[in-house]
Task: inverse folding
């Protein structure tokens, strides 16, 4: 009598579940997944969970943006085997603008290895050790999700920063505001001769349907470079310290909870003054509010507002407003 064959191990189509939800599978693949889901409670449960996650993430449209390197490759070579990039560009003006800009520029094909090592060190990126090809390990749910929601590539020029400001965005189209760090180099800033109170600047962009162009953001940073008088009064907290504290969860950076953000900066980083800048755009001009906070007590030390500021006057106007508030307190 022929012995019964051992039961075949069920193979779960993990890599196809998210494309299944996004309706990006070909008909044959979709049929295979449908058949599998009809008899697999594990994958059916994961599909339901993915559905809830993607529904939430759809409110944050940039979470589904392709990596900037993919947009670059598409703009340069037209490489788009599944038409994923071209479909995305039809609905995402930000990525379309990036593709058009990349299409007119001659960018280097790769970043030098030594520069990438310095970028990794500055940003605190830890390389994931490669697993031997002979050892097959099933990626976790979070790892598979990471493969789809990638963080756009950092521009090399943004890494060489001496001091950074925290930029917190309030995009109107986003349910959950994004938090990021942006940088410019402030060369020649006077070093304090004595122990000075620490200060931090928080810039919030409210009701922006599209992010402020990086060039405009950088101009604001350059205008806010501490002069000698400010450097003799305060030590502006470094970007590396802010980034490390934020990534470790030591400090809170939440535009919807500014009071708690200021409190965490005081308790964890010993910040005594926080200047909170709120920018709003309307008809090509800007309104700016600067509020100086006593980080130890959470109380407002005063605020100043300006409206109808033209784009070309924004950096200097912000510098003037921040300086007047810092010098007065």
Result:
């Amino acid at each position: 009598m022929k012995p019964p064959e051992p039961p075949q191990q069920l193979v779960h189509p993990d890599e196809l579940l998210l494309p299944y939800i996004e309706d990006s599978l070909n008909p044959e693949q979709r049929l295979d997944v449908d058949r599998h889901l009809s008899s697999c409670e594990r994958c059916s449960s994961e599909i339901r969970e993915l559905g809830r996650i993607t529904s939430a993430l759809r409110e944050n449209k940039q979470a589904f943006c392709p990596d900037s390197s993919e947009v670059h490759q598409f703009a340069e070579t037209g490489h788009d085997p599944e038409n994923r990039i071209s479909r995305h560009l039809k609905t995402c003006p930000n990525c379309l603008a990036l593709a058009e800009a990349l299409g007119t520029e001659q960018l280097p094909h790769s970043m030098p290895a030594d520069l990438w090592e310095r970028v990794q060190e500055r940003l605190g990126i830890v390389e994931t050790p490669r697993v031997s090809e002979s050892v097959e390990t099933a990626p976790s749910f979070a790892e598979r999700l990471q493969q789809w929601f990638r963080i756009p590539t950092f521009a090399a020029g943004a890494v060489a920063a001496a001091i950074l400001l925290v930029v917190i965005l309030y995009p109107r189209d986003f349910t959950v505001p994004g938090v990021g760090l942006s940088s410019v180099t402030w060369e020649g800033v006077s070093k304090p001769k004595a122990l000075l109170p620490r200060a931090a600047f928080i810039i919030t962009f409210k009701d922006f349907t599209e992010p402020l162009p990086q060039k405009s953001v950088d101009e604001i940073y350059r205008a806010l470079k501490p002069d000698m008088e400010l450097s003799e009064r305060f030590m502006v907290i470094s970007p590396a310290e802010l980034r490390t504290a934020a990534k470790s969860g030591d400090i809170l950076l939440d535009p919807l909870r500014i009071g708690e953000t200021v409190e965490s900066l005081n308790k964890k980083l010993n910040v005594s003054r926080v200047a909170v800048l709120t920018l709003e755009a309307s008809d090509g001009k800007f309104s700016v509010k600067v509020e100086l906070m006593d980080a130890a007590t959470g109380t407002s030390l005063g605020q100043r507002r300006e409206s109808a500021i033209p784009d070309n006057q924004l950096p200097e106007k912000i510098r003037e407003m921040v300086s007047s508030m810092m010098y007065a307190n």
User: Anything to note?
Assistant: The chain has a mean pLDDT of 72.
